[in-house]
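User: Hey, my collaborator sent me this sequence without any context and asked if I could get a structure. I don't really work with proteins. Can you help?
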Amino acid sequence: MDYPKIDTLVCTSCGACREDCVAQAISPDPYTIREDLCIRCGHCYAVCPVSAVSWPVSEINSYQTTENPVGPGEQNPGRDTGVHFGGEPRRDEVPGQAARFLENLVYTRRSTRQYQNRRIAPEVMERLVSLASYAPSGTNARVAGITIIDGTAEVQELTRCCMQFFAGAARIVLNPVTRWVLMLLLGRKTTRQLEGYRRSMDRYFRGGRDILTHHAPALVCIHAPARLPVSRDDCLILGHSMVLHGESLGLGSCYNGFLVRALAIHPGLRRRLQLPRGHRVFSVFTLGYPAVRYRRGVPRSKLVTRIIPGHPETPA
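Assistant: No problem. I've predicted the 3D structure and written it out in structure-token form, which is a compact way to encode the shape of the chain:
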């Protein structure tokens, strides 16, 4: 597997890539990428202001948008294609450039882990929630709900409770006695991953860096009745509809599977959200105005695709 590389002759040591690297895989002096830690997310490639990061040439399914950068905390002019509707939009009246607009949103979206200290206006949040009601729903059940924690301090309080719970669990599970049992049951790699999570939690409490919700001004939880077979898919579709809509309005987001799991096993966290009885959270993401500028899309490997051809039509 190939990994991105940093050209030290071009690199200005600005630190943008290292600050945005979720895997902490970039070492300074000179700036290099540790392949043993890199998860190939592409943030370093997308954020570099001087294009010092190169991507493996083997990634052939690529799309780059250097002319339409995502600016921090502002609606990207490159994304505003002039596609606006008045009144009730009709599908047959959608302009042709709408396809390009949507492609650009998908190609250039990044998981945002650096946010401005800026609250999302109520009218913007209402706009997101209103459009989310149009998301597809299995059997048209439409039972999903949205709970939004609005405000950085409120999000931080939920984060603190979650981290305290898991830090305590980690101390119990990953002690010197049980470590060898875990290695036998889960394997060396999984055990080391768990130890990495524990170190991350230690950094949270000692260094004050929010590695869970990233000081975001809002946290969105999508939930639905736990026993309905359509609930999980409905929540995921509704959540991603909100995420893409938010991108078009200049908002960044980051999905958080850790909190989804935490809310499934921690009754105290569920009580804080005041969820409807019988509901389970299936999707969680942070939301806010980005404090970082992503300058280009990241190439991706071509998906393994199979097309099963149909029978040729018989002439009438």
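In plain terms: Residues 65-87 have pLDDT under 50 and may be disordered. You can pass these tokens on to your collaborator as they are.
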